[in-house]
Amino acid sequence: METPLWRAIGAFRIASLGYAAVLTISNYATFTRPVLGFMIFGVMVTWTGVSVWGYSSPERRGWPLVAADLTVTSACLLASQLVIPAAALRSGASTLTMAWVAGPVLASAILGGRRWAVATALFLGALDLSVRGTVNQSVFNGTVLLLLAGFAVGYLTHVTAAAEARMQHAVELEAATRERERLARGIHDGVLQVLALVQRRGTELGGEAAELGRLAGEQEATLRALVGFGPVEAGAGAGLVDLRQLLRPMTTTDVEIATPATPVILGRATATELAAAVAGALDNVRAHAGPGAKAWVLVEEERGEVTVTVRDNGVGMAPERLAEAEAAGRLGVAQSIRGRIRELGGEVAITSAPGQGVEVEMRVRDFGMSRPGR
């Protein structure tokens, strides 16, 4: 997507060369060395062709070409003092290069971003000052315009690169989704149906077959989650994970998990610790909620904040039980849940009463999701 920007530099170079030609022809009578002035203009014409050719190819556009562009442009700018009278330059007369001088600033903006563009603009502004020998309105206006142009193009390049990355991510995600759907159809027609049949027949037969049926049901639920949400999203970025994919395998016949339809992207460390805290809460349900208890996991995301709620319909507990357990050295909840979420800078709220189950609400904000700017 940067290719149109490079083409725009070529178009700008040609247009600004035409403006320089008009000024050269209009003012050559005032030149101290008219022949040298036309020779310098010839160099500008030649280099315009070279730079347009060079910037048209990804293989050629790079820092060596930009450095050469800056060198030739600087030489033409400095040569203005050999052609245009010093008094005219001090009073604000145009240099031979005029707007043509902005070419390397724009190229630096596309290749290196705003910082390189600003540095190049300041360098050329300093050369313009040395040519004129004094700070006048022309030096000030020219330098400010170079800075604004470089900063604007650098920002546009940053936005364009980010948009291209998002588009690439969307294409990869769409391809992965199509492949997942293809695999899911095959698995559904074979493995999942067999597991569902084993679960149903095992329940009907009872005894050891019932336990086998229960295990088959759990594996069916886990497999459905895997084929439904696949591995970590390709292209999501280094160290980023979809939290749904870490939680879905926890689905069993006694645990239901509800997540948003869209990916819940977190930093890998944050997502791993949050999923471990959820696993700890589910372990507590199995250990303390009583026989036949079921659990529900709800994932919500709003404005960069992720909330995961684990609720069960078990026997519940007295409000003071957690404090008593921690005082007695039993640190399951304190460490596996509260400790993990506290390390992430989040909060945990636990609500329960005897006979009313337990609700654990974990809330975190992932500060590792910001993308570095250019």
Q: Explain this structure to me?
A:
- This protein has two domains: 162 residues, no CATH class; 142 residues, Heat Shock Protein 90.
- It is an alpha+beta fold.
- The chain is built from twelve helices and seven strands.
- It is 64% helix and 11% strand.
- The C terminus is likely disordered.
- It is elongated and about 110 Å long.
- The strands form two sheets. The chain has a five-stranded mixed sheet with strand order 2-4-5-7-6, covered by helices on one side. A two-stranded antiparallel sheet has the order 1-3.
- Helix 2 packs antiparallel against helix 3, helix 3 runs antiparallel to helix 5 and helix 7 packs antiparallel against helix 8.
The tally of strands reads 7
Largest sheet: 5 strands, mixed
Strand content: 5-15%
Stretches where pLDDT is under 50 for at least 5 consecutive residues are 229-238, 368-374
| Mean pLDDT metric | 82
Number of domains: 2
Strand order of the largest sheet: 2-4-5-7-6
Instruction: Count helical runs.
Output: 12
Structural class: alpha+beta
Please compute the radius of gyration using only Cα atoms: 34 Å
Measure the end-to-end span. Answer: 16 Å
Instruction: Please state the overall shape, judged from the principal axes of the Cα atoms.
Output: elongated
Helix percent band: 55-70%
Order of helices and strands: HHHHHHHHEHEEHEEHHEE
Compile the SSE list and pairings.
Elements: H1 3-27, H2 34-55, H3 63-83, H4 86-90, H5 103-112, H6 114-132, H7 137-205, H8 208-229, E1 240-242, H9 243-247, E2 255-258, E3 265-267, H10 268-288, E4 295-302, E5 305-312, H11 321-327, H12 332-343, E6 347-352, E7 358-365
Parallel strand pairs: 2-4
Antiparallel strand pairs: 1-3, 4-5, 5-7, 6-7
Helix pairs in contact: 1-2, 1-5, 2-3, 3-5, 3-6, 5-6, 5-7, 6-7, 7-8, 10-12
Keywords: Kinase, Membrane, Transferase, Transmembrane, Transmembrane helix, Two-component regulatory system
Organism: Allocatelliglobosispora scoriae
GO molecular function: kinase activity
